[in-house]
Amino acid sequence: MDQTTPSRIEPGPADGGTGWRHWLYVNLHTQAWPGSGLSPLNKAIAVIIVVAVVMAIVQSEPTVLRGREDLFRAAEMVLAVIFLAEYAGRVWTIAENPAFGEGWRGRLRYMRSFTAIIDVIVLASLFITLMGAEGTILRLFRLVRIVMLAKLGRYSTAMLAIAQAVRDRRYELLMSLAVAGMLLLVSSTLLFLVEGAGQPEAFGSIPRAMWWSVATLTTVGYGDAVPLTILGKLLAGLTAITGIGLIAMPTGILASAFSNALQEQREAREKEIVDSEPS
Amino acid sequence: MDQTTPSRIEPGPADGGTGWRHWLYVNLHTQAWPGSGLSPLNKAIAVIIVVAVVMAIVQSEPTVLRGREDLFRAAEMVLAVIFLAEYAGRVWTIAENPAFGEGWRGRLRYMRSFTAIIDVIVLASLFITLMGAEGTILRLFRLVRIVMLAKLGRYSTAMLAIAQAVRDRRYELLMSLAVAGMLLLVSSTLLFLVEGAGQPEAFGSIPRAMWWSVATLTTVGYGDAVPLTILGKLLAGLTAITGIGLIAMPTGILASAFSNALQEQREAREKEIVDSEPS
Amino acid sequence: MDQTTPSRIEPGPADGGTGWRHWLYVNLHTQAWPGSGLSPLNKAIAVIIVVAVVMAIVQSEPTVLRGREDLFRAAEMVLAVIFLAEYAGRVWTIAENPAFGEGWRGRLRYMRSFTAIIDVIVLASLFITLMGAEGTILRLFRLVRIVMLAKLGRYSTAMLAIAQAVRDRRYELLMSLAVAGMLLLVSSTLLFLVEGAGQPEAFGSIPRAMWWSVATLTTVGYGDAVPLTILGKLLAGLTAITGIGLIAMPTGILASAFSNALQEQREAREKEIVDSEPS
Amino acid sequence: MDQTTPSRIEPGPADGGTGWRHWLYVNLHTQAWPGSGLSPLNKAIAVIIVVAVVMAIVQSEPTVLRGREDLFRAAEMVLAVIFLAEYAGRVWTIAENPAFGEGWRGRLRYMRSFTAIIDVIVLASLFITLMGAEGTILRLFRLVRIVMLAKLGRYSTAMLAIAQAVRDRRYELLMSLAVAGMLLLVSSTLLFLVEGAGQPEAFGSIPRAMWWSVATLTTVGYGDAVPLTILGKLLAGLTAITGIGLIAMPTGILASAFSNALQEQREAREKEIVDSEPS
Predict the structure, then answer these.
(1) Closest C-alpha among D233, D174, D229 to residue D197
(2) Which residues lie closer than 8 Å to B176 by C-beta, 6 or more apart?
(3) What are the helix (H) ranges across chain C?
(4) Which residues in chain C have Cβ-Cβ distances shorter than 8 Å to A219?
(5) Tell me: the pLDDT tens digits for A76-131?
(6) D278 has a pLDDT exceeding 80
(7) Do the Cβ atoms of D149 and D42 come closer than 8 Å?
(8) Which residues contact A139 (CB under 8 A, 6 or more apart)?
(9) For chain C, what is the mean pLDDT?
């Protein structure tokens, strides 16, 4: 899969593409790159996306932004131009790919593809923020681009393995979530009844007590809401101990799912070896 | 198990049932529904139960309830009528099920069944709260109904798998709970001896120190009780580190139990395949 | 092991024992009891030990003790008499056991056994506290007795399984403890250097910063010591994330050890079945 | 590996070494020691290194250092002399090892080896701190020495097993780290938007909200930054619950990797037994 297979280079020039357009096609479209991993151009784009995301994060901090508004605005503009050029490049060079068909008909088909629509949304968000809209969330849309570039090679296999393990055991995981929900409801109801009168702010209703209950069951334990009566502390202790079980359950489920996936892989490999042996 | 088996539809009309009563019977009694999952009517009832539980939660919040007492009371009455009608429907249509016998004799037998008694308790709790009693806990009895409706299909299999894993290793899990109890006692005694004099409110007795000890061993760490002396902090650090072990132990036990259950399922499947092959 | 084997009843009377002494012998010495589990008398003693431990815990609370000093003192005396009688009974009836030899020679040999010496220590602690010594720790010595009574049947098997899993992987577990120690040292040194000047109370030296570091690495997070500078928070965040790894490591090690132990048990069982089949 | 193999003693005297130099060589160089574990001299050096590290830790505490500056300085000097002597000894006796060649040529080759360069760095750090530089980090360089001495026997095998398990699943572990990073970004952005206006100090920008987010996702939960609005608490609760998943994922991955490594070891052992059986 990671090996260089020449068949992954589309027969560009025969398709009417020029040498330069073919070079750009192979460098921009991840699935057209003959080597494993990302092309140098896509690596550069990935770095620029990371820079853009970091900029979006940093720029939300007033002490950093103050006095540098113009600098950040200029940088945003540069980014907008780069991403626009990249999108234009992708649309122009897609004609090299016979799967989409020739000329503008093929380009229009590409523009209606899922990947290209995501690109347009990210681009649009960039220009909207440039026009002055409050754009923290819009800026973070760029993250989506990283996820899409990351669909590659070994990391993709690892992601699939994790996703497979989660999917294999989805009913068990949902069930342990349901058990967690029940515990949340029961413990917050009990604490509301026991501590509600004494601490109306923190335990004065079931929804209020739920805030404490979530923090306890997940073992986060902020400490902003804490029972004060003996009975309340007793119930809280029991909640904390069942919280351990809530952590143990999904962990155990996932561990067994990963173990299983691993063993199946090994067995498949062993079977291959046996089958390929001369008898 | 999830496949539609015609034998699951009871031979209603032959049993003296009308077409309408038979339709209601099949729709109300989960075990009589020929398809997999819940019947449309039972799905609607499940939604109503969820609404009732959410109402019970929301209604405990004074800022929500104030000025809307009549609204909530009306909604409670509607719910009471729906649940009463559902119960009446179940009792009336059970005559379709030959297992309980014909007519009122069969209906009385059904009313003495576990499921029907739970229904009556939940109904009773509804009417008691309507008559003015403080009913937070009574209202949450409805949760029991959801658990009973949930006894279905894949979720049921997942629940059984989790329950099986817990039961398989119940002695190991109880043992790690006993170890946790010992650690709780030892650490709270030590902290009481070391910090008791300096912080009588938080560590002035073993039961008081236990509150800190539970929060530390489960890694919740509220921070409302914290040792201040060097020796106390040293002991607290050791307690926190053993707390990690307390999380690791049940998780490891459950993970191995799930792994085991999975492997047995696979082996059983493989055996089936081998047995069904022509020799 | 749990089945009633008549051979476990020692041939008392032939050994010169009376019927009554034999009855007491079988009821007091757990290993002489023919059935599985504890004898009724030992069950009663276990309950009394639990009561004694609970009393020791409760009595450390001044609000409970105040005005009830005489009551607790009387209860302590009753307990002391019971435990003394039990010890005397054990020593007297051991003559029924041919393994220790006859008469007082056998009784002296029993009194030098590990179990009997523990009994004497617990008894001594009881009488010392009665004579007025501050005895919280002494009182908790009774816990040791529970541990000794618990050495029985299925719980013992479960305990052995857990102990075996821990022992099998002791080098890996010690190694992850060593890694934890290194991380503790590195993170507390860094936080001391970064936050030490600003918060001398909490981070003014490596030992001080260690308190924060333990609470963070174990994910307890009391919140009494928290970094305030940006660099400090960055390092603290990294510490918290490595803390997750510290929890994952021992859990994973233990899970694999339990899994392994389980599989070996199953294989041993399967081998037995295969071996016992007629060929 | 742990067994005493005579071939591990280099043929010193034949190489021109004296008896005394040979004894020192075998005692100082861990790989030359014929028995398993560390030589008595290296054990003593390990203890001295631990003392030096503890001294570095303790000495950072002003209340301990005050009035004892001369004492600590003297101890540091003694340590410097010991470590210098040890290094000189290693260099001098390396001539016993034919792998490095004879005389000063061999010694120079040894001095350019990784181990010896680390030794020089640690020594240099010692002398720099003695010359008055603020040397907390320099002092902790000694830890590196412990790590190097620890490369031995069973602990080394255990370390390798852990490292192997981590390396085997590095893509999955990095992937779950990436997922954690995404969640961190998403949750801190949402909390910044929801709580930023009300609590500018704690949630006034994405980087600020990240501090809360790290503490919540890792279930540390300091409690110094806590959402106050209902929507903020709802999002925080969801973050805490996904935090459980973040703990479960690496734990499950590592557990399956350890399990796998264990099974391969067992299979390798079984194969050995089968192969060695006479047919």
Answers:
(1) D229
(2) B246, B249, B250, B253, C162
(3) 19-28, 40-58, 62-65, 69-93, 103-111, 114-130, 136-140, 142-149, 153-168, 170-195, 200-203, 206-217, 230-276
(4) 219
(5) 889 889 988 988 998 998 888 888 877 888 899 988 888 788 788 878 877 777 77
(6) no
(7) yes
(8) A52, A53, A55, A56, A59, A125, A126, A129
(9) 80
CA distance C192 to C205: 6
d(CA D9, CA A220): 55
Distances (CA, A) of D24 to A27, D29, D82, D245: 62, 8, 15, 54
Rounded Cα distance, B126 and B143, in Å: 12
Across residues C229-241, what is the average pLDDT?
94
Contact (CB, 8 A) for B210 and B184: yes
Determine, for residues D222 and C222 on separate chains, whether the beta-carbon distance falls below 8 Å.
yes
CB contact, 8 Å: C250 with chain B? yes
Q: What is the pLDDT of residues B234-250, one digit of tens each?
A: 999 999 998 888 888 88
**D109-126 pLDDT per residue, tens:** 988 888 788 788 878 877
Residue of D55, D59, D60, D256 to mutate, testing the C interface (most C Cβ within 10 Å of its Cβ): D60
What is the CATH number assigned to the segment(s) C165-276? 1.10.287.70
Neighbouring residues of B70: CB distance < 8 A, sequence distance ≥ 6: none
Task: Give B221 to chain C, closest Cα distance, Å.
Answer: 5
pLDDT reading at D171 higher than 70: yes
Take residue A59 and report the two structure tokens written for it. Answer: 């720029």
Q: Cβ of A222 and C223 within 8 Å?
A: yes
In this complex, is the C-beta atom of D132 within 8 Å of any C-beta atom belonging to chain B? Answer: no
SS (H, E, C) chain D: CCCCCHHHCCCCHHHCCCHHHHHHHHHHCHHHCCCCCCCHHHHHHHHHHHHHHHHHHHCCCHHHHCCCHHHHHHHHHHHHHHHHHHHHHHHHHHHHCHHHCCHHHHHHHHHCCHHHHHHHHHHHHHHHHHCCCCCHHHHHCHHHHHHHHCCCHHHHHHHHHHHHHHHHCHHHHHHHHHHHHHHHHHHHHHHHHHHCCCCHHHHCCHHHHHHHHHHHHCCCCCCCCCCCCHHHHHHHHHHHHHHHHHHHHHHHHHHHHHHHHHHHHHHHHHHHHHHHCCC
Contact A82, A186 (CB under 8 A): no
Judged by DSSP in three states, B196 sits in coil
Mean pLDDT across D51-74: 85
In terms of pLDDT, which residue wins out, C161 or C14? C161
Neighbouring C-beta atoms of residue B78, cutoff 10 Å: 12
Q: Which residues of A198-230 are buried (b: 16+ CB within 10 A; e: fewer)?
A: ebeebbbbbbbbbbbbbbbbbbbbbbbbbbeee
Triad A26, A98, A108: Cα angle to 5°: 90
Please judge whether B171 and C155 are an interchain contact, meaning their C-beta atoms are less than 8 angstroms apart: yes
